[in-house]
Amino acid sequence: MRLYRLAYRSLLPPLVAFALLLVAWELYAQLVVGAIAGGVRLLPAPSNIITALFTNTAILAPHAWQTFVETAIGFSLALVVGMASAVVIDLSPVLRRAIYPLLVVSQTIPVLALAPLLVLWLGFGITPKVLIVALYCFFPIAVAGARGFQSTDPELVKLFRTFGAGPWYIFRKVRFPGALPSLFAGIRIAVTYSVTGAIWGEYVGAQQGLGIFIQRTQHSFQVTLIFAAVIVIAAMSVGLFLLTLVVERLVIPWYFAERQSKSVLSRDLSLFDPRGGK
Amino acid sequence: METQTINNAICPVAVRLHGIYKSFPHDGGRLDVLRDVSIDVPAGSFASIVGPSGSGKSTLLAILAGLDQPDRGTITLQPVAADAPISQRLGQVGYMPQRDLLLPWRTALDNAVAALEVQGISKHEAQRQAMPLFRQFGLEGFADNYPHELSGGMRQRVSFLRSAISARGLMLLDEPFGGLDALTRSSMQEWLMDAASRLGATFILVTHDVDEAVLLSDRVYVFSSRPARVVRALDIDIPRPRCLEITDNPHFVECRREVLDALRSAGGLTVRALGGARS
After folding, report:
1. In chain B, which residue ranges form alpha helices assigned H by DSSP?
2. Which of A155, A159, A162 to mutate against chain B (most B CBs within 10 Å)?
3. Of these four, A23, B18, B122, B269, which has the most CB atoms within 10 Å of its CB?
């Protein structure tokens, strides 16, 4: 019942909007662009794209797998490095002042400039792609994690000190669990970046992957296949995002239970709400 | 009335503070918070501290709990020696803050045993010790509930239990019922009177509520506004057990009037202090 309402309230509106958009596109592509000679090759209709997606599954699958592997490794690296950075930032105010600006600067480097350099240094293999994904993803994780640690109630820390708890105990048992909701907010943002990072890395130079696939099909003007690859990328991103939501609900069920009991009025846990459904 | 002691390990602590001074850095200078505060709480008795907001009552509790050091003065917690280092008070004294501060990811039982876990007692053993207390403190059947599933009064009971279970004879309560509505607060005061007599520890309560102080205490200390001094120490010799109805008793009314007079003379009769008094 609850799940049904959740699906109804948070999935129905975007699905309806998406369906309307597809219908408009289909009509425009069929009736307006299709009337021009060769127009279909410039803007294929959704039905053409879906057909291409199914007829080219065998070609797309290894590329998609390559991109997925790069994303998964890069994201895992970002998770480890991001959480470690959050801890380091939290442990020492001096390190926070030293590291935080570097983190911000690292995010201002355009991937467009960095990706060719990484390929130049590290070759056409998987390593530069993994690094680009990690670079893309670790910043939101580090920042959200550090903010989570800092959001610990100082009164709570004092209380546990009166119990005789040391800093390490307080960190493990009080501050870390308390930081998890914030950390997951950062992870959600990072996950949506992750696939794009891999695509960028491949675009510059790769043997396999959806990024290089898009580049090749672009060069041979196979617009329908570009769209097909984009659909695979979008599906992969949304799939990873939904997986994150599931993991979040498994790791911090107390957070959702508490939030739901607090806000009886704002019950809809909008999955795609940019505010994270808060 | 049943006055079964719930924890055999508890041995009430006599508290003696003598000439406590405390100041904090403030705007380049120093802000005096406590000036020559001396209080004397016999073992097993219940003392309250009332005073204006921001008068340093909570600072005094923090010093007693071992979270802070006084600039000057001596603290004697018998049987803990007078010259014991600050770290010996941490983990010895039960400190209960105004907000319940329960961990939302732990059940009521797991919250209640948090302090025991810190002291290195296994979770299983800690739970075995805590379970009977759930029954005695009116929390039976709620051990497996999460804090958000409990009412404000119940959360405060779990918070009290968590602090009391690890205390070795001294409980410090920092406005424990300040955040509760008036009805819940009344029932919690009755509950605390019962719990205190079962626990057999020494209690020091900081409150804004003059009625609460008189109802619960053997002795009420009235603090001045900052820097805090003791302006009045009033013994409340109303016999125990007491119940909420004694607030109409002429002797109770007399005690309350004396506390209010002392607050007024100290310049500390704020709107909030009046608001706390039921009449």
Report:
1. 57-65, 108-112, 114-118, 123-136, 152-166, 182-199, 210-216, 250-265, 271-275
2. A162
3. B269
What would the pLDDT profile of B113-129 be if each residue is shown by its tens digit? 998 898 888 889 889 88
* DSSP H helices in chain A: 2-27, 39-42, 46-55, 57-91, 93-108, 111-122, 127-150, 154-162, 167-170, 176-204, 210-219, 223-251, 253-262
Query: Is A156–B101 a contact, with Cβ atoms under 8 angstroms apart?
Result: yes
pTM metric for this prediction: 0.81
With CB atoms and an 8 Å threshold, state whether A159 touches B101: yes
Backbone angle region of A140, left / alpha / beta, with phi > 0 → left and psi within -120 to 50 → alpha: alpha
Taking the CA of residue B250 and the nearest CA in chain A, the distance in Å comes to 39
Cβ-contact A7, A31 below 8 angstroms: no
CA–CA dist B228, B264 (Å, integer): 14
**Residue range B47-52: mean pLDDT, rounded:** 91
Contact list in B for residue A153 (CB cut-off 8 A) is 101
Identify the CA nearest to B219 among candidates B56, B13, B40, B57.
Answer: B40
Enter the tokens of residue B248. 């109409």
**What is the rounded end-to-end Cα distance, in angstroms, of chain A?**
21
B144 reaches A (C-beta below 8 A): no
Contact B105 A177 (CB under 8 A): yes
For residue A244, pLDDT over 70 is answered with yes
